[in-house]
Specification:
By secondary structure, the protein is mainly beta. The chain has a single domain, classed as PEBP-like (Phosphatidylethanolamine-binding Protein, Alpha-Beta Complex). 8% of the residues lie in helices and 35% in strands. A five-stranded antiparallel β-sheet has the order 5-3-2-6-7, covered by helices on one side. The chain is globular and about 45 Å long.
């Protein structure tokens, strides 16, 4: 379960994340967060992260990173907020072999699709759950 602080029913803060094992030749790290229970609603797209970074601090986008708009229409993170039941949220980190080209404020679906179509050297997935109650 995703802790309440990282949902709309809590602090709506972006969660801290860490990763290791970035492949050689990675030019950019990107993160896409989607609610796959409702067709891939985009909660966060953050790109242009340095491959040596190793993670993201809570509520603190890394210096030099770019955040697209989420599906709500605002830049940055939008915490899980399922209207009913329990939803599945995918936090997917991409090691890209070339820059994604995502721009600040770009529409979330467009930005997520760009990242997901870019040539990548690796990807990893963390799935979290959040419920309406």
């Amino acid at each position: 379960m995703i802790p309440k602080d990282f949902t709309c029913r809590g602090g709506d803060k972006s969660p801290p994340l860490q990763w290791t094992g970035i492949p050689a030749g990675t030019k950019e790290i990107a993160l896409v967060v989607r609610d796959v229970s409702i067709g891939g609603f985009v909660h966060w797209v953050i790109t242009r992260m340095d491959p040596t970074l190793g993670g993201i601090a809570e509520s603190t986008p890394p210096s030099g990173s770019v955040q697209a708009n989420n599906s709500i229409g605002r830049p940055g993170y939008a915490g899980p907020c399922p209207p009913s039941g329990t939803h599945h949220y995918e936090f997917r980190v991409y090691a890209l072999s070339q820059p994604s080209g995502v721009t600040a404020g770009e529409a979330g679906l467009e930005a997520a699709t760009k990242v997901e179509k870019e040539p990548r050297l690796g990807t990893t997935l963390l799935t979290g759950l959040a419920s309406a109650s």
